[in-house]
Amino acid sequence: MKILVTGAAGFIGFHICKRLIKNKNYIIGVDNFNDYYDPNLKNSRIENLISEKNKPNEFFKIYKADITNTVEIESIFHKEKPDIVVHLAAQAGVRYSINNPSTYIQSNLVGFGNILENCKKHKIEHLLFASSSSVYGGNNKLPYSEDQGVDHPVSLYAATKRSNELMAHAYSHLYNLRCTGLRFFTVYGPWGRPDMALFKFTELILNNKKIEIYNRGQLYRDFTYIDDVVESIFQIIKNPPNNELINLNSNDPSSSWAPYNLFNIGNSTNIKLIDFIDLLEKQLNKKSKKIYKEMQLGDVLSTYADCTKLKNWINYKPKTNLQKGIKEFVDWYKKYYCN
Ligand SMILES: NC(=O)c1ccc[n+]([C@@H]2O[C@H](COP(=O)([O-])OP(=O)(O)OC[C@H]3O[C@@H](n4cnc5c(N)ncnc54)[C@H](O)[C@@H]3O)[C@@H](O)[C@H]2O)c1
Description:
11 helices, two-stranded antiparallel sheet, alpha/beta, binds nicotinamide-adenine-dinucleotide, globular
């Protein structure tokens, strides 16, 4: 199968490409290699994909292109003729969206619209796209499940991700485009994102610098290990939405008469930030110096996923607990940065 992966140089994109290549799928990667975080890390991920054991990888090809560029993206679809699209390219991060709204409007709305148009035009069999747990915004009923209404985003980032879900639904209804939205819950692991807590805290603790802890540590997150996320994407590719299976009386806003699905992808655990730091300190064998700060604008207090819908669809069972996941990350970090 030929699969186009946008955001291939990103954290999740890199891992999904690796998994799909292992199963002998042909991967067309697209990424603009922007400098939201160190582009060297993005280049290293791509180098790792391009050559395995010093042999060029015939299953992988990368295009440096921006998803907002209509001409370039159309020509990639036209030339490569992918069967499936896994769309992960986006401006990520809640806090960055407070001061940099235009990047989110461009990449997450204009860029997403461009991907949808090409999926329609080139008759893509199945579009999978990244949404986020942040769509649950101001909801306070935990765990979050897909049948909850999500109409109160508390950041522009969340609003763009919710908009993607709605835009995809319109294409699914109008053009019979099979779409699956993936609501990721704090994904972490080796080759992770430098702007996320695990990476930042590890870097600061190892360099004897202070870590900032928001809302005095009274924040809770559902941390999901990258291999569990990748495995679920792999299974969802093989199980596209089937509108004949939908129960229209279910009153579930994430289901539809159109070939469309939305899933939470989490670990269904609600870890207190302070406990998470404690586990990291044990793994690093080093205590952190903490500065306690107020709650940040746009942040949510808690994320916690109900993954029953995904379990029923692909028998999803996350396998990696936080202790093991942190160890895998720290081992990678030390090997990559400290050797
Ligand atoms: N990592 C998480 O915990 C998490 C949680 C919820 C949602 N998500 C979503 O999952 C997706 C992947 O996240 P990630 O953690 O791998 O982030 P990432 O930033 O590592 O990867 C995104 C990639 O997209 C590329 N990109 C950004 N804008 C682009 C554009 N206009 N054109 C082409 N490429 C562009 C970036 O260069 C980057 O390599 C994103 O859509 C993100 O919003 C991630």
